[in-house]
Design brief:
The complex is a heterodimer of chains A (325) and B (323). Chain A has 325 residues and is mostly helical. Chain A has a domain at 98-311: MetI-like (MetI-like fold, Orthogonal Bundle). Chain A contains 14 helices and no strands. Chain B contains eleven helices and twelve strands. Chain B has two domains: 5-91 and 174-322, P-loop containing nucleotide triphosphate hydrolases (Rossmann fold); 107-173, no CATH class. In chain B, the strands form two sheets. In chain B, strands 6-7-8-3-9-10-12-11 form an eight-stranded mixed beta sheet, sandwiched between helices. With 323 residues, chain B is of the alpha/beta class. Chain B is globular. Classes of the chains: A mainly alpha (325), B alpha/beta (323).
Chain lengths: 325, 323
């Protein structure tokens, strides 16, 4: 059984590395294929030809493609994401400065969604057809359908402008934890609401399926308390599809919270990528996207490994993709 | 001594897309204290519904339950859900037909066996519960029980899983054990082992057992009393040996004729005709359409269930047929 686990882990790691390499290759091709050269973007079209040639040489753009490819890969593997074409700062520093805000918002939002969505879904499943079930279904679908930046604008209007309960814009005064926390509440809620609805729907349908299984009937026949049946025996069975979606959710929020970041005037990876694209700032774009890819694949690796922690049957079928259902 | 369970006029209807299905049409049955009552009948005769009704764990589409199920004097059908739940897994336990799906694949055997005990015995520590579980696994013939406690269901064979289910049932020391075709899903060799185990366990188990099977031979081997069901009704009851030696109901007789004996010439006999649909209500005896002793009166009204000493039957002509 240990061999199975190790084999599984190894095959997942290989896949992960391949995905990251694939992403790096795509990012590199982007800077080669896309029209408009980075040097012009940096120094402007009025620059002299001599100066432009100098900048091109500094950026290594005069080298043949394969040399640039090798340089790019070896630099990234050494942890060097390049230099910001506009400011001259290290890309790693630029990305690193916004990363904590993105991480904080992503994991808080997903955490909140799990904390609220899972019990809601369980309750709806165990009270199927009740008024609560119907109301929850309506609200869930509504929040899934409304884009998070629209929710963000409404939250801002209600809680900041009308009620004046929470300050919102920016990330707060450095070092003032309470101020920073206050300013994190609304963006987190804006991002989480849709996910709460999504997770509640997902958990509900998974739970309904599990609750019909014979092993749950066994537990009922032995008079096991309903809460124990729901939250111990059934929820663990319903967890796998939910966790799979959480992995996707983290990936989606990492680079996709850009509109919410703009509404609340917060720095973040999404915004960094957006700005980099607008400015044709390829090094920053490559660095930021690479970090998103990296965090995404690591999250999904953890997700995959958590399946085998939950389901002993996956542990024994070493490295196989198929989940028993 | 009055019986542990007295069922009178138990009717169970289910709402289906095709109309109301009559799953049980007025069942009368006694389960004596310490007795093993075998329930036989074809598929769809209501055997499983009977067991589920005793636990009041019927499917969601059940539209009506009437009659009474007295368990130690108390009518289970009038108990509130908390009181009913209090009986489950303490005084009434159940073994299911398919051991492959009856255990949760994500939890160890030990977790299952600990939780059913802790539910019944307040303050029982996990360690003590595991010790008891280990001893019980030994009793039901599971080798290396300590290791099995930390095994997951998929790591055990079907026969082993059914032994675990039996251990689970015995751990709660029930007054009534419901065994719903516990060997049907197993292959013949394993089936024989499980029957042997159940028969061995009888010596130590003081409670009553309702043993459901479609296998008459198995019931003859294991049970004290026999209850023959047909299309949602009980057609005949009585001590196994007596009923099998001299059946009073034509259906029992026909069922016996279908059993494969060693002396048979190889031709399989079957009962001509079909079981009436659960959706329809025949005006008279439910077996009349297939009965070779049918008279016009049989189609007139359902025959009453007549109790004659230890024997009981629902046939108008049982006196004529005996002679």
């Amino acid at each position: 059984m240990m061999g199975g686990t190790a084999g599984y882990l190894a095959s997942r790691l290989v896949t992960t590395v391949l995905i990251v390499f694939g992403a790096m290759l795509l990012l590199f091709s982007l800077s080669v294929i896309v029209p408009g050269d980075p040097a012009t973007a940096l120094i402007g079209p009025q620059a002299t030809a001599a100066y432009k040639a100098q900048v091109i040489a500094e950026m290594g753009l005069d080298q043949p493609v394969h040399i640039r490819l090798v340089r790019f890969f070896s630099a990234v593997l050494a942890g060097d994401l390049g230099t910001d074409a506009l400011t001259g700062r290290r890309v790693a520093t630029v990305v690193g400065s916004v990363l904590p805000y993105t991480f904080l918002l992503t994991f808080l939002a997903i955490g909140l969604a799990v904390l609220i969505g899972v019990p809601l879904g369980c309750f709806a499943a165990t009270n199927r057809g009740s008024v609560f079930d119907h109301v929850l279904a309506f609200i869930s679908v509504a929040f899934i359908a409304i884009p998070s930046f629209v929710i963000a604008i409404f939250l801002l209007l209600i809680f900041t402008i009308w009620l004046d309960w929470l300050p919102v814009l920016g990330t707060g005064t450095a070092g003032d934890f309470v101020d920073q926390a206050k300013r994190t509440i609304l963006p987190t809620v804006a991002l989480a609401l849709g996910w709460i609805g999504f997770i509640a729907r997902l958990v509900r349908s998974s739970m309904l399926e599990v609750m019909g299984e014979p092993h749950i009937r066994t537990m009922r026949a032995y008079g096991i308390a309903p809460w124990l049946i729901t939250y111990k025996y059934a929820l663990k069975n319903a967890a796998i599809p939910t966790i799979a979606i959480l992995g996707m959710g983290v990936g989606r929020l990492l680079g996709g919270a850009v509109l919410v970041e703009i509404v609340f005037a917060r720095p973040g990876l999404g915004r960094l990528i957006y700005d980099a694209i607008s400015a044709r700032n390829y090094p920053v774009l490559q660095g930021a996207v690479l970090v998103v890819v990296l965090v995404f694949v690591i999250t999904n690796l953890i997700v995959d490994l958590s399946y085998s922690a939950i389901d002993p049957r996956i542990r024994t079928q070493a490295g196989r993709e198929a989940l028993p259902r | 001594m009055n019986p542990l369970v007295t069922i009178r006029g138990l009717c169970v209807d289910a709402a289906t897309s095709a109309g109301t299905a009559h799953l049980l049409r007025g069942v009368d049955l006694d389960i004596g204290r310490g007795r093993i009552v075998g329930v036989v009948g074809e598929s769809g005769s209501g055997k499983t519904t009977l067991a589920s009704a005793l636990l009041r764990l019927l499917p969601a589409n059940i539209s009506r339950i009437s009659g009474e199920i007295r368990f130690d004097g108390e009518d289970l059908l009038t108990l509130d859900s908390a009181a009913m739940s209090a009986l489950r897994g303490t005084r009434i336990a159940m073994i299911f037909q398919d051991p492959m799906t009856a255990l949760n694949p994500l939890f160890t055997i030990g977790t299952h066996l600990v939780d059913v005990q802790q539910r019944g015995t307040a303050g029982l520590s996990r360690r003590d519960a595991l010790t008891r579980a280990e001893a019980m696994l030994t009793t039901v013939g599971i080798p290396d029980p300590k290791r099995r406690l930390s095994a997951y269901p998929h790591q055990l064979s079907g026969g082993m899983r059914q032994r675990v289910m039996i251990a689970m049932a015995l751990l709660v020391e029930p007054d009534l054990l419901l065994a719903d075709e516990p060997t049907t899903a197993l292959d013949a060799t394993v089936e024989a082992q499980i029957v042997q185990l159940l028969s061995d366990l009888r010596k130590d188990f003081a409670g009553s057992i309702l043993f459901i099977s479609h296998h008459l031979g198995l019931v003859a081997e294991l049970c004290d009393d026999l209850c023959v069901m047909y299309a949602g009704t009980v057609v005949e009851t009585g001590p196994v040996a007596e009923v099998l030696a001299q059946p009073k109901h034509p259906y029992t007789a026909a069922l016996l004729a279908c059993e494969i004996d060693d002396g048979d010439t190889g031709r399989l006999t079957s009962i001509a005709g079909e079981v009436p649909s659960a959706l329809s209500t025949p005006p008279g005896c439910v077996f009349a359409s297939r009965c070779s002793h049918r008279v016009p009166l049989c189609d007139h009204a359902p025959p009453p269930f007549e109790q004659l000493g230890t024997r009981g039957t629902a046939c108008l002509r049982h006196r004529d047929l005996a002679s």
